[in-house]
Amino acid sequence: LLTPNEMGNIMEANEKMGKCNTSNRTIIAWVEEQAKLCQPDEIFWCDGSESEKVLLTAEAVDKGILIKLNQEKLPGCYYHRSNPNDVARVEQCTYICTETRDEAGPTNNWAAPKEMYQKLLGLARGSMHGRTMYVVPYLMGPLGSPLTKVGIELTDSIYVVLSMRIMARMGDVAYKHLGNRDDFNRGLHCMLDVNPERRYICHFPQDNTIISVGSAYGGNALLGKKCLALRIGSYLGRKEGWMAEHMLILGVESPTGEKTYVAAAFPSACGKTNFAMMIPPAHFKGWKIWTVGDDIAWMKPGPDGRLYAINPEAGYFGVMPGTNYKSNLNAMKSIQKDTIYTNVALTPDLDVWWEGKDGPPPKECLDWRGNKWTPESKEKAAHPNSRFAAPMINNPMLAPEANDPSGVPISAIIFGGRRADTMPLVFQAFNWIHGVYVGATMGSEMTAAAAGTLGQVRRDPMAMLPFCGYNMGYYFHHWIIMRKLIKYPPRIFHVNWFRKDANGEFLWPGFGENMRVLKWIVDRCKGRANANETPLGWVPGPESFDLGGLEGYTPEKLSQAQTINYEDWRRELLQQDELFMKLYSNLPKEMIFQRELLVSRL
Ligand code: GTP
Ligand code: SPV
Ligand code: MN
């Protein structure tokens, strides 16, 4: 690490560092205006350079915001502990501020823009006294892609700046993409006193503006991710004829070199990162899975009539607990360098630990709160929503196409929830509209990714309940409309890795073994696998689902995982109705029709 002296030298050597580095007048005027409001002691304009990273990292370490980890084991890696009250997304403090309440719809918190601006500006006023305001320009999407968007985030958190530089293409590259245009997303992020009482994550889609105060947690504070790429993105997508989705993107390569791309929407902490980085079991010799993205997909019909997807991000903000060399080798390889670990445990030799890591727990360490922890402790050492932020270039199976401005053609869209019962392992929707219905009625148990009740099943349409930036009824309609714009629509599937038997054991081994399900899906898309019709959709025929090499797993267990229990489905239909009733006046009639069809098939 640099001494203050060396740091001074770098500063002197690079006089430009931190100085205004854009000639875009709209940006300069906007930053000045926000600075007048927040009154920081200093404005630091980020350029995304290596020397800037060195300087800001040193400052974060100096201020105790980051702890430098054991550089022999984890080069370039740092440790962060959040305020214990600030560990997850806060849906109850997240608002869509449109002119009318109807535009935000019944599934979002709504506030009138005027009133919310007033409240937020009141909170932001003078809030950066004694602090630095960082100007963080970033791209969501590869340089030069027509889908790519520019955002500028003003923040008084170095942790946010350093995380943004991992998660997005950050720095001068964004000014280059923008040129003299003024259609950038305006993001303001203020730490305030990190008090849940003064925490608001607010979106003003009509102004392309985000204001987030009182939290430094990823989904609340890294404004490019959920706020821009999903909430504002979905709003823009509806206006402009594309889709912003909470989906991973992966490429399946067959032994003959054929590549098939798949996008999958699972709710938060329900397996996207794991699926996107999956390693096929030995039985699938010559098969490879390439990661394009692990959380967000922007999709638009291409000139050849297929649906093309890009991953707007440049890094992975992944769930830490349960990540190990067996469950997710590529994630483990991705976090060995240049990674920020948040809210895991810290060992005496400055290594990190979390529940589910390979090997025995440390005899003693500091837990995510900084308290002494031993294996006898009752509390968890790592927070259940502890996370890593790692650059995607670390992933050995990163698809080169992740940087392709035109994206990848999607053959299948997969929906999936975390369901202990009711939902079979896999089925295929009969057609696009039926698939939209399957996505619209998705249910999933709540996880630690959001503050709230754990384990409760709730409706989470297309895994977008917390992320749809407008009325969910219009969103379903947009999905239906998109069918008309896509000549060769992807096939739609539903999966559930989490079904349990009467003893509470998973009925499906999951993780790498999900390749078996994926293989069937790919084969279906290519017209190579047979299927049986059920009331829910098509399911694998006995010869088309490969259980080879899966020791101790029987076809009986598979059929248990695939069971359609009619009692369960009567209950399921009632639960689906709760969401439909909420959306009643804006629900596309196609959804009601699909429901009637399902009832009659059941
Ligand atoms: P977000 O980053 O919150 O959007 O989550 P994600 O969808 O990327 O979830 P992730 O892949 O990080 O998985 C979250 C949890 O699900 C971890 O605890 C995993 O161990 C567990 N998980 C993932 N895949 C499987 C699976 O196939 N079977 C089982 N049983 N658990 C899984
Ligand atoms: C999720 O909760 O879906 C995440 C983590 O991917 S966060 O970006 O923090 O929202
Ligand atoms: Mn997510």
How many E strands? 31
- According to CATH, the fold-level topology of the largest domain is Phosphoenolpyruvate Carboxykinase, domain 3
Which CATH first-tier class of the largest domain would you pick? Alpha Beta
Class computed from helices, strands and strand pairing: alpha/beta
Helix count, DSSP H or I runs of 4 or more residues: 17
Main beta sheet, described? 9 strands, mixed
Distance between the termini: 65 Å
How many structural domains? 3
Based on the structure, what is the oligomeric state of the protein chains? single chain
Please tell me the CATH architecture of the largest domain by its name.
Answer: Alpha-Beta Complex
Indicate the radius of gyration in whole angstroms: 24 Å
Report the sheet-strand fraction. 15-25%
- Given as residue ranges, the uncertain stretches (5+ residues, pLDDT < 50) are none
Which descriptors apply to this entry?
single chain; alpha/beta; Phosphoenolpyruvate Carboxykinase, domain 1; Phosphoenolpyruvate Carboxykinase, domain 2; nine-stranded mixed beta sheet; 17 helices; binds guanosine-5'-triphosphate; binds sulfopyruvate; binds manganese (II) ion; PEP_carboxykinase_C
Describe it for me?
The chain is globular. Strands 1, 4, 5, 6, 7, 8, 9, 10 and 11 form a 9-stranded mixed β-sheet that branches. The relative contact order is 0.12. Helix content is about 30%, strand content about 20%. The chain has 3 domains: about 210 residues, Phosphoenolpyruvate Carboxykinase, domain 1; about 270 residues, Alpha-Beta Complex (Phosphoenolpyruvate Carboxykinase, domain 3), CATH 3.90.228; about 80 residues, Phosphoenolpyruvate Carboxykinase, domain 2, CATH 2.170.8.10. The longest helix is centred in the middle third of the chain and has 17 residues. Helix 12 runs antiparallel to helix 13 and helix 12 packs across helix 17. With about 600 residues, it is an alpha/beta fold. It contains 17 helices and 31 strands. Sulfopyruvate binds next to helix 8 and helix 9. Its main location: cytoplasm. Monomer. Belongs to the phosphoenolpyruvate carboxykinase [GTP] family. This is Phosphoenolpyruvate carboxykinase [GTP].
